[in-house]
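#onboarding

Welcome to the new folks! Below is a worked example of what a typical request in this channel looks like: someone posts a single protein sequence, and someone else replies with the predicted structure as tokens. Don't worry about understanding the tokens yet, we'll cover that in week two.

Example request:
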Amino acid sequence: MKLKKIYVYAVVILIVILVGIVFYLKYPLTKTEKTEVKNETEKLAWFVDKNGYLYYPLDRGNIKFRRENYSETNSLLISKVVYRSTKGNVYGLLVLPKNITEELPGIVLLPGAGVSKGSELKLAGKIAELGAAVLTIDQRGVGETNGDFPTLDEDYYSFIAAKEPYQHLMVYDALRAYDLLYSAPFVDSERIIIAGESLGGRIAVIAAAIDRNVKGVLVISSSGFDFKAKGDASKDAFSYSIDSDHYIDLITPRKTVMMHNAYDKNVPLSSAVNSFKKAQEPKQFILINDTACNHGYCDSMYNGLVDALDYLVDIRTKTIFAVPEK
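Example response:
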């Protein structure tokens, strides 16, 4: 009796195998379809490895966005841009010179914590007037970009629940902003950098470390956390994943510029210098001494900004001119 049962099971298994073979032969996945399935999976992938490095795929697909007129000055055109990112839309302002005669370098400009794209418009305009395309955004939970910015503890709980933390989502938003500039016909795709103030500076470093197509970073009034492992594997991995000090040495051989005020009240100069030491060549540190500048970009940084952009994207600024012959 037991022998008969074994025969029955064997026959059933054989039938299942034959059905599978027939189905595969009739409806095979082509090589192209397999690649598309794989690519689609890769586009959705994100993770933090055991060493605390955040991963997002290089192939993020086409960027979906809309653009509308916002305002203009005598020399600049300003457009409102809305682009699709993970779990919602990101709102930004694209600032361009009115007279474009060649492909422009592209600058993704990330504001500090709680700072809106409108507040960043003055700096974006100064950069655009030098001859660049500048995209600044409302980060998650600021301005028109939806979200309630969580505490670090809340973000960590999302992380251990396998949900993308806000700190990681902001990195992805920065990468998609890069994608938008990369797709623009008026931007030189070989000269796109990510710049940021304070929190934006940390996000800029992490995003550029992840995507090595980004040509460099400009970090203004910012530093990493200089995190040291505490012995809890998951907490350590999360803490490393949001610490720009953990990534800054990965920017090389691309260029890193840090610009800092000696009297910054939010980020001590010593912290910025410590982060700069972790960066590899080529790199520059631009020090400003302005007792009236509390934090972030100040007008006293303008000459340093010009030098930084010349160094990073070989911008031909309007401050460079030929002395007429007598």
